[in-house]
Write a structure and sequence with these properties.
alpha/beta, 12 helices
């Protein structure tokens, strides 16, 4: 299992120089990948393309970019640019987001989400792979072609949790990117469905990228209380709530890997055994020593 860093916590203060420097250090430390969410008013794909010009080995991925507010043609253009800048190391992670966010923030209608994603892929993937699309769909359409900055298409992965979207991910893409998912859910829900869909479609075994907060500390209860407080909203979103219920926990306070060095390493081993191909940590810590210890435990788990 590959071990990487989810740097999305840095989007609280989205400074391009600081994020680039952090990713360069992630590579120097020996991690395999670096991921950013599309949450702040900073373009995650553009940021990862910039990082790609300053690194040489890191896999660079979005975890994830919402599809609802961005036409697949625009998504393809950004992804191909990032892929060219990164020299072929970019992974485009996309997802539907969540009904409350789509309706309350974007003021858009949450309508036929599976059809939405199928239309999206029917345009996005031909544009990435061939530079042309000829699709007139129910939700999205695009007929046209264009020159590309690279002929090497990036991998595409979905934020897939439920049965239908996992089947789409397995049949059509390179894998799934997870949040609010632990080892029990990977073993019982994620891996059987996505692997089965890929096998039926004659595709390679999909990647399963698991991301969770990680915090090495001698005083775990205050750390758990802090994580539970700042990330409480995730437990209220229906798709995450369903995964947390499979895991048998209320929220990320219980699901995060928080504790001693050995407990964190053991937790990562459990995620590997459940079937994840990648683990990307949101590194937490109450002081520089805890942050350094957390990164050390992650490297020890490789």
């Amino acid at each position: 299992m590959k071990i990487g860093i989810n740097g999305s916590d840095q989007l609280v203060n989205p400074d391009l120089g600081a994020i680039t420097a952090a990713a360069v250090q992630v590579e120097a430390d020996g991690f395999d990948s670096y991921w950013l969410a599309q949450t702040a008013l900073l373009d995650a794909q553009a940021m990862l393309g910039l990082i790609g010009t300053q690194t040489s080995s890191l896999t660079l991925g979005t975890a994830v970019v919402p599809t609802w507010p961005r036409h697949p043609h625009a998504m393809a253009a950004s992804a191909l640019t990032a892929q060219a800048a990164a020299g072929g190391r970019f992974v485009l992670g996309i997802g539907l987001s969540h009904r409350p966010i789509v309706e309350d923030r974007y003021k858009m209608a949450w309508h036929k989400p599976v059809r939405h994603m199928l239309d999206y892929l029917d345009i996005l993937q031909p544009l990435l792979e061939e530079g042309a699309s000829n699709h007139e769909g129910e939700i999205f359409s695009y007929v046209g072609e264009g020159t590309r900055p690279t002929n090497e298409p990036p991998k595409v992965m979905l934020a897939a949790l439920g049965d239908q979207m996992l089947r789409v991910a397995g049949k059509r893409t390179d894998g799934t990117i997870l949040w609010c998912v632990g080892p029990k859910t990977i073993e019982q829900q994620i891996k059987p469905i996505i692997d089965g869909a890929a096998d039926a479609a004659g595709r390679p075994t999909p990647s399963i990228v698991c991301s969770l907060p990680v915090w090495v500390t001698d005083d775990p209860q205050p750390a758990r209380d802090f994580v539970g407080a700042i990330l409480a909203n995730y437990a209220e979103l229906p798709s995450y709530r369903a995964m947390l219920d499979i895991e048998g926990v209320h929220g990320l306070a219980e699901l995060s890997l928080i504790g001693s060095h050995d407990e964190v390493v053991e937790g990562i081993a459990g995620i590997r055994a459940a079937g994840a191909t990648d683990f990307t940590a949101v590194v937490m810590g109450g002081n520089p020593d805890e942050i350094a210890a957390t990164r050390g435990a992650l490297l020890a788990a490789k």
